[in-house]
Amino acid sequence: MFKFKKLLQTTCLVLVLGSAFLVVYQRHIPSNSEIGTQQLSPRWQDRGTKSKDYDENESNNLVMTMASGPGVGTPAKNYSQGVSASHTGKSSDPGKSVDLKSVFISVKTTSSFHKSRLPVILKTWFQLAKQQTWFFTDADDEHFQKETNNHMINTNCSSSHGRKALCCKMSVEFDVFLESNEKWFCHFDDDNYVNVPRLATLLANYSPQEDWYLGKPSIRAPLVILNREDKNFSKNRQNVTFWFATGGAGFCLSRALALKMKPIAGSGKFISIGERIRLPDDVTMGYIIEHMLGKSLTMVDEFHSHLEPMKFLGQDTFQDQITFSYSQYGKDDWNVVKIDGFAPRIDRTRFLSLHCYLFPYFTFCPR
């Protein structure tokens, strides 16, 4: 009897101690749902490339949401840092989308690239923005004039890739936009794939009535050049420092900013500024906006140019990106996104495969 009583007391003591331990454990160890939340930020934080000033603490600003419509599922990120402390952006809300009718999309090309570069654009993303997209070239082309629904403009600029020819085309693009009623001017090159729904989502978060210069630099520090506006620049040797969005990745300007640029860069004046500073079109654009007008570039990391290694863009981030590109370094060396799909001999740029990944309902996509 005594032994049984002793055993019962020991058992009760173990149960009491066990209950106390369980209470302490539950208070200090997170639940499964809390663990899932803590792990979510790092996973989304690692998606896609990071800007040079990316702050690891920005994971608190990452939000995962889904929008209706094909191929539009994006994390929202608040670029509170931007390119520098003064280059402030806004968060991207995938639930919002700007009316494409308010966007003027220009594609810079040249006659020697019409046959090699335009067909894949016309078959893919152009189909999502036919009325908004215009091609700026340097020669008349009856075939592609028809293929683009008469949206090809001969700038009468040189077909060379020199500084003056590039500034000439950009000047025409800018002036044609000013003559339109659109609220946004978005420039791209003929080696870009544009994720149109994602572009619309981006622009919906900014007001065209405010000054916005949206893009991505291709350099890790502001450009420093001699101040050639100074008549005695060769003697004074004063420098000008500014950021510019690389044209090969694409960039967008709000109408409010474009109207401020008009007196100094409109009606062909853009070319003169480019000649004065002796730099190409995208750099001249940054010089006008940042240096002459004192407006800042807002960093958008989802623009991509051929200067970046495309293979490092994860396929699970493709829906988040705004532009893609490609380039050829040798006979068989291509800088392209890594994605399964059409055979390389059919789809060397991988734009067809990319498009079918984002928009599988297109008729030419494999079923």
From TrEMBL:
Residue stretches of biased makeup (Polar residues): 77-91
Molecular function per GO: glycosyltransferase activity
Tell me if Metal-binding is a UniProt keyword of this record.
no
Q: Which UniProt keywords apply?
A: Glycosyltransferase, Membrane, Signal-anchor, Transferase, Transmembrane, Transmembrane helix
Cell compartment(s), UniProt = Endomembrane system; Membrane
Q: Member of which family?
A: Belongs to the glycosyltransferase 31 family.
Q: Where is the composition biased (Basic and acidic residues)?
A: 44-54
Species the sequence originates in = Bemisia tabaci (Sweetpotato whitefly)
GO CC, any one term:
endomembrane system
Q: What is this protein called?
A: Fringe-like glycosyltransferase domain-containing protein
The answer to whether the entry has keyword rRNA processing is: no
Q: How does it sit in the membrane?
A: Single-pass membrane protein; Single-pass type II membrane protein
First-listed, main subcellular location of the protein, grouped into a coarse class? membrane
Gene3D superfamilies the record matches:
3.90.550.50
Annotated ranges, domain Fringe-like glycosyltransferase: 97-349
Positions of region (Disordered): 36-58, 74-95
